[in-house]
Amino acid sequence: MSESALPALYLRGLTKTYGGVNVLDGVDLTVTEGSVFGFLGPNGAGKTTTLRILTGLARPTSGTARVLGTDVAESGDEARASVGFLPDVPGFYPWMSAEEFLRFAGGLFALPRVVLDERVPVLLDLAGLAGVKTRVGGFSRGMKQRLGIAQALVNAPRLLLLDEPTSALDPIGRKEVLEMVAALAGRTTVFFSTHILADVERVCDTVAVLDRGRVVAEGPIEEIRARRGAQVMVLEVDGGAERLAERLAGEGWVAGLERDGDELRITVSDLAAAERAVPVAVASLGLGLVRLDAGEVSLEEAFVDLVGGAR
After folding, report:
1. Contact present, 257 and 264 (Cβ < 8 Å)
2. What is the pLDDT of residues 213-262, one digit of tens each?
3. Most buried of 136, 213, 263, 284 (most Cβ within 10 A)?
4. CB under 8 Å, gap of 24 or more: what pairs does 1-5 form?
5. Cα angle vertex 87, ends 85, 90, to 5°?
């Protein structure tokens, strides 16, 4: 298999045990090159442990972890030179400017000055920090996160690993960081660990859901939604919603039903059957149908079904 055909990340049966507890319990995962991959899971699921293994900061108890075709247990500096990493709590030298910090990071990779002269201004522009003279100690959390991503890109990596890059940011900071991640699509492979569903839906094309050390779902976001085998119908009537809810609750195609005033939100396993039955039920009760919409289950609903329902 050619190098370009190899996956960016390949994990099989990966385990990590601390004090007799399996933090990772047989993780299987494949990340294709060029994707923006969301590694999604609740806090404590094992996401950071996985990233520590991928970066060589921890060793697996058993199983296989390959990064850009190289086993992490055997990889050296040459393999790590193709990877960029932003930890969940990045550290900075507060007396440096953004440019000085990027040049310092580039020096750790032994990048020639001529390369840094060309690359640093591009990264500062990408991070929205071009022309900023303030020392890093005076940066907002969002500015620091954007600088952290720029630092992780200073070696022009084929693979960028981000651990909770939007955690603890305010809405503006999150928006800025996500825009920066979105701008990387097609330029490098991004492996994006987070517990924030909205961030995944905004920037990622593929997702894996990790729960208690195991991958419980993996694939394109649309496939994860569809895999739940359900769709959503939202309808509004002009009174009598409670009676309608009672009438529909026993139908075999109803997987879930919530009522909010005159509005019903129904998770359905057979949309065609629901579209036939709902108007009949509304008419039989003498109600007026104000609105009827149907659509996909959201990623949030699929996530709760996959993770929340298993707890």
Report:
1. yes
2. 998 888 887 776 665 555 778 888 888 889 999 989 888 888 788 888 88
3. 213
4. 3/69, 4/33
5. 110
